[in-house]
Amino acid sequence: GPLEEVSLPLFFGWFLLTSIQDKIKCTSMDFLKTLDTLEAFKKHLIDFSGKAEEVDLEQYFQPTGILHCTTKFCNYGKAEGAKEYAEKQAVKDFYGSIFDLSLSALFVTPRTFGARVSLTEEQLQLWPADADAEKQAESVPAAASMPLGSRAHVTLGCAENVEPVQTGVDLLEILTLQQEGQQGEQVEEMELGTLTYYGTGKWLLNLREPISAPACFSSFYG
Ligand code: ACK
What SS3 state is found at 59? Predict the structure, then answer.
């Protein structure tokens, strides 16, 4: 009946606790501010504005609401594998539990700004193994051969007219380049870590100290 149809959420995921959300927002804004001033970044500005004009990255990326790491996009049951996911034993067992997510990198592209999440074996139990979640959204060539959970991320901001689903796609693109052996161009040792450029506006900051983020496994109905 209609009740069953709405009983599945928009998505399942880990929702970062408020205290850490504020810290991450500060750290990520500081990073954008610094990136903006780097000569190496200015050299590739054309990727962002289509012109060699300055961009204010803090304005360029719009916040996208509560910080979270999506595990399964269910679209209220319309997404493939939604029901199976909701019925997984691990999903039922861990619903409402607090986890420590490890944010291991920040990345910026002309479309999105995000944090990479490195999942533990336990956390991977909540990752959809079924229909290759890695390329659930759109096809990223070679994404199917990436390790499970590669797509895990927290969206920190999106450029105008870009949907948050793009953040995971952008991360997979960067990780695919890495897996194919592209070293990227190491441009800067920053206080937070090493900044690497992967071409066409793709920047990745590997954090020296991963950020540990307490997060509640739950779901969002919207
Ligand atoms: O930033 P995100 O991970 O990207 O969090 C939002 C959340 O679900 C609500 O929109 C993600 N999302 C949207 N569509 C998809 C999709 N087709 N596959 C995977 N994640 C999706 C979006």
Answer: helix
The answer to whether 44 is a known catalytic residue is no
The residue whose CB lies within 8 Å of the most ligand 1 atoms, and thus the one to mutate among 70, 111, 138, 218, is 70
Q: Is the CA virtual torsion 126, 132, 137, 140 positive or negative? A: positive
Q: Output the CA torsion sign for 173, 179, 185, 186.
A: positive
Candidates 115, 130, 92; CA nearest to 218 is 92
- DSSP summary character for residue 70: E
ipTM for this model: 0.99
**Tens-digit pLDDT profile for residues 8-22:** 999 999 999 999 999
What is the rounded CA–CA span in Å between residue 168 and residue 64? 14
| Claim: this prediction has a pTM higher than 0.80 | yes
